Amino acid sequence: MVKLSILLAGLAAASIQAAPLERRIAQSISAATQKWEQACRAAGGGERCNPISVTAFSTLLAGAGPCEQQDSGDVMIDLAKQLGNDAEMIRLTQIFVQQPRNTPNSIATPYCQKAPKNAELNGLFQCQFVGANQEKFNGGATLGQPGTIPFGLNAPVNPLGSCPANTAGPIADSSQLVDQVQSPGNGGSSPQAPAPAPPASTTVADSTTAAPATSTAQAPPTQTSAGGGNGGFALANGQEAQQLNAKFAGLTEDSTCTAGEIACVGTAFAQCVEGKFATIQCGGGLICAALPLVNARGTSVTCTTTADAEDRIARTGATGGLTGSGATNGGNDGEDVPEPESSATIATNLPAETASASTVAAPTATSAPSTGAGGFRLANGQAAQALNKKFDSLTTDSVCQAGENACVDGGFAQCVGGKFVVTGCAGGLVCAALPLVNAPGTSITCTTQADALARIQATGATGGISG
Asked: Per the record, which residues fall in region Disordered (predicted)?
């Protein structure tokens, strides 16, 4: 087990390209939507901006499906239209959908093979990184085969690796297109032009029609719009949690990983330090698992009970238990899964390959009085409120006991040497105590204010996050 001080030191020194032997081409993915989120907030989007931004830049991870980036672009355009058809948000979205995706093995990433929902994204597709082999694609296809030619074209891109915003060719490895171009090119409609989008009732670009009817836990889950209400993203969150749990079942401490990557190894919470997973055991008979968020698009990785994890996943409508295979532990040997890299939002909603070292330490669980299945949920909500109220008064100089976990100044904190060591939450998130769903107790993790409030309110507790 690696102590927190060592873990943080390892993270601070880590590079986003931590596995040169794997010839990974990665990037600071959060930078891809940072300007869009700023424009969104300036346009009045408020708390709606960050969850959409986080989900969008997560689609740049190597394990994401070929259409997830475009689907997130549609969600970004939807919000821009709700905010007065904001031209800057639309322009930045058009550039975002052309940002290259990470590649674990220096070959090109496949192109989406369906039309976007919004006409503003018509004809837009991602550039490739210059270090990638432009004639071979992830998944085994070679140039000219399905998935190697952008939707709507009948011949390979010329020059190879180019996109409408950068017609000269691929862009520098790990760079951000949004820092290099101002115009998204001629693929989509102008942001100022009257919106020629198809009627809302059309099914031609409906992302739900593209998912195979027999998808498995190894296949990327159907991407649904976060703007479509809780009933839309809840199922996708559940399916992504199952996919992550299936992937985690095949990991060991010796599995190849990327600096800062968060996962579960066995029953322990794990974080990648210097190319190997450092594990932190969950206490009190708990296991580490990926869970679906309740009030935003994405997942979290935390310590919980098996029953609680299965219950949260089942509530989204996803079937097949923890991994989607009906098995509690495993259901996947890892051989057909992209390298251990989350395609969903994890613990702090900060995916593995951002440049920041501010990822959360192991979420923890605390006990709450057991009052039976009908009563402990309220007790859990009230216990979470009490903890959050206590956390409000803590500082880095507060007296603490070795190994104690808390929230201090909005960050995840662990007691080391009698003082709290704080790891900041990323992307506008906050540290909070949350109620477990199917067992007495609470967990501590980084999340959105809305998600924390929704989980507490669902228990019947009143008075907000702190009671």
From this structure: 177-234, 316-343
- State the pLDDT confidence band at 339, using cuts at 50, 70 and 90: very low
Name the nearest CA neighbour of 100 among 177, 180, 182. 177
Decide the pairing of beta strands 107-108 and 133-137: parallel
Assign 328 a pLDDT band (cuts: 50, 70, 90).
low
Q: What is the mean pLDDT of the chain?
A: 74
Same structural domain, 346 and 398? no
Decide: 397 and 332 in contact? Cβ < 8 Å: no
| Termini Cα distance of the chain | 36
DSSP string, 225-265: -GGG-HHHHHHHHHHHHHHHHHHHTT--TTS---TT-EEEE
Considering the domain boundaries, does residue 208 fall inside one?
no
Q: Which of 232 and 347 is assigned the larger pLDDT? A: 232
pLDDT mean over 355-374 = 38
> Do residues 33 and 170 both lie within one domain?
yes
User: Would you say residue 373 lies in a domain?
Assistant: yes
- Identify the domain boundary among 356, 371, 403: 356
Alpha-carbon distance 377 to 375, whole Å? 6
SS (H, E, C) 134-195: EEEECCCCECCCCCCCCCCCCCCCCCCCCECCECCCCECCCCCHHHCCCCCCCCCCCCCCCC
Residue 380 has phi, psi (to 5 degrees) of -60, -45
Same-domain pairing of 302 and 326: yes
Q: Which range of residues forms the domain containing residue 453?
A: 360-467
Per-residue model confidence (pLDDT) at position 448: 78
Gap between the Cα atoms of 433 and 442, Å rounded: 6
How many independent structural domains does the chain possess?
A: 3
Judge if 281 and 339 occupy the same domain.
yes
CA-closest candidate to residue 300, choices 351, 266, 255: 351
Among 133, 156, 174, smallest CA distance to 31 is for 174
Q: Do residues 367 and 391 share a domain? A: yes
Q: Are residues 92 and 132 in the same domain?
A: yes
Residues 276 and 394 in one domain: no
Distance CA 397, CA 195 (A): 56
pLDDT digits (tens, 9 = 90+) for 191-207: 333 333 332 222 222 22
Cis peptide before 159 (omega within 30 of 0): yes
What is the distance between the alpha carbons of residues 224 and 194, in angstroms, rounded to a whole number? 26
Look up tokens 């004809």; give the residue.
123
Give the DSSP H/E element, type plus range, for residue 383.
helix 376-392
